[in-house]
Amino acid sequence: MKLFAKYNRINVLATIFIFVVGSVAFYFALQYILIKQLDETLHSEQQEIHEYAEVHHQLPDIQNTKHQWVTITPTDKPLLKRKIGNYRYYNEREKEWETARQLLFSLNINQQYYIVSVSKSEVETEILLKLVILVTIGMVALILLLNFFINRSIINRLWQPFYYSVDQIRKYEIKDKQSLSLPRNSVNEFNLLNESLNSMTQRIEADYLALKAFTENASHEMQTPLAVIRSKTDMLLQQSELKEEAIKNILGIEDSIQKLTRLNQSLLLLTKLENTQFALNEEVNISELIEQKLEEKKELFLSRKIDVGRKIEPLVLLFHQQLAEILLNNFLSNAIKYTPAGGMVNVELNSTKLVVTNTAANGSLEEDKIFQRFYKAQPNQEGVGLGLAIVFEIARAAGFSVSYSFTNNQHIFSVHFNWK
Questions:
Q1: Spelled out in words, what is the top-level CATH class assigned to the domain 173-277?
Q2: CA–CA distance, 81 with 357 (Å, rounded to integer)
């Protein structure tokens, strides 16, 4: 949920709650005031009747109206105190039941007691209350609507610098060699955020450049001692007086040197890819290159009794010959290495993708880690764990995307060419 939506939901709910509580309180307060006014009117009428009876010693002439009427009834039992309250009556003129406010009190004229009932209709009061409630509801709805649009307009405008910063961060690539420079604006909190992000990315860039320089320099510096060690081991192997145990040890050293050399070459290649040192401007016949690589690895397929299927359509890409060969070599070598004897490898190429499928030996791989550097499905697995990472970097440099899936006990590696 977006921050604005969450804020707006809380704001609307709080506003509705406040207005509902306020409206209910206002309704009862207004009702109390109007009833009190009715009671004052009834008390005034009582006062007038008492004053007339005291002065003239007779009952007053009663003139009833539509909304107020008086009834006087002789009685032998006068009321001890006046009574006031509501009652329902049937309005013959309107043909409906209505509510009236009634005041009952006793009147003594010449030792004759009367019970006087002064009634006043509450229809006008009820109409006024309904009108006030309708106006209040309308105002609440209007205020909520205006509040929503005003908040939406203001908040969207206030959050524009934040969304700009988020957009710049999304576009930021440390490999593009362009520093992140978020501008200042009128909101202090966003300035603090932008300054922190600028400072953080500068530190990241410095660490990245230092690490890249170290990797590149270390890889270059390792070449000479590796070459020396290799030549020395070759010289030792040529000595005829060596014992069998010594030869085994030297061969073990030679094998480790070969692994270290491959690791060094892979790291150098990754560094060059990160530095965009390859110009992708050669026309590469991918279909012919795949056929060539399959032919080169024919003996390996036969030795492991692996069936090879192919469905290759003619395709020429604007790519880099060496990188294309490395990508295909790594894909096919990975398929050969991890396909069990008697399994199958299938290669499919069309204008949109390259797909290499091979029979799995030990189930699915971890999709979120398969293209990470030095990833190995098993701790004792052969290789340095950089083959698929190199494939990923080559595809990224060319603007392609790489994916992995596992279906029907088969590993499926795909390169999507993402034509625009």
A1: mainly alpha
A2: 103
Per residue in 366-382, pLDDT (tens digit) is: 777 777 777 666 555 55
Q: Tokens in use for 262?
A: 């491959």
Nearest partner of 34 among 144, 138, 164, 123, judged by Cα: 123
Residue 350: C-alpha distances to residues 296, 310, 311, 316, 359 (Å): 22, 11, 8, 10, 21
Its pTM surpasses 0.70: no
DSSP states of 313-348 as a string? ---EEEE-HHHHHHHHHHHHHHHHHTSPTT-EEEEE
Q: What values do phi and psi take at 207, rounded to 5?
A: -65, -40
Task: Report which of 19, 119, 112 is spatially closest to residue 69, judged by C-alpha positions.
Answer: 119
Amino acid at 279: A
pLDDT tens-digit series, residues 77-116: 888 888 888 888 877 777 788 888 889 988 888 888 889 8
Looking at the chain, the number of H-run helices and the number of E-run strands are 9, 11
Paired with 57 in beta bridges are none
Domain with CATH 3.30.565.10 in the chain: 282-416
CA atoms within 13 A on the CB side of 52: 12
For domain 282-416, the CATH class is alpha beta
Chain length of the chain: 420
